[in-house]
Amino acid sequence: MDRTQALLNTLYKEAELLDEGLYREWLGLLSEDICYRVPVRVTKERGPEGGVSGVMEGMYHLDEDYTSLEMRVARLETGFAWAEDPPSRLRHFVTNVRIGDPQPTERGEESAVRSNLLVFRSRWDRPDYTLLAAERRDVWRYGPAGWRLARRTVVLDSATLPTHNLAFFF
To answer: What is the top EC class of this enzyme, as a single word (predicted)?
Structure first.
């Protein structure tokens, strides 16, 4: 299997781990220097340059590194994470994956990956649910253990979050 196909399979495996709540195993897909961000979305008038609304520079719903992500996973494992009691039922739909050409770096070969994401979240036994659409802008690094996520920026389509918390991962 070539590296591009292996990276695509890793993206699907990551979605499966998140859907199954296997967060400790998900951490194994992250590089130790991970930068994991969800910037705040802003809506503004269309200017002369056109385009759609962007993100607020320097302002994040989540701004995580490996240590903070590991602490969040450890908290979920305690059973005392009230925002996830009962645990959310999640489904990550990863689509429109665009994998850039590998680039050599001092840390190994890296590929920029952009993908679209739809996260379905359901809790309790109610018919209500949350849908979050986003674009993920990733950098994946290839090494002896395979592909590892080095950077992720999740650009949500919503400027206002339709959920009370972001106690799950994208």
So the answer is: oxidoreductase
Q: Fill in the DSSP letter of residue 128.
A: -
Q: Which residues contact 142 (CB under 8 A, 6 or more apart)?
A: 3, 7, 102, 108, 109, 110, 111, 148
Question: Residue 115 is encoded by which pair of tokens?
Answer: 């993908």
Largest distance between two CA atoms of the chain: 51
Q: What is the pLDDT of residues 98-149, one digit of tens each?
A: 999 999 998 889 999 999 999 998 877 777 788 999 999 999 999 998 999 9
For tokens 């400790």, what's the residue?
24
Question: Does domain 3-156 sit in CATH 2.40.30.10?
Answer: no
- In degrees and rounded to multiples of 5, residue 115 shows phi and psi of -150, 155
Q: Is the dihedral angle over the CA atoms 121, 41, 71, 33 positive or is it negative?
A: positive
Alpha-carbon gap, residue 91 to 18, rounded angstroms: 8
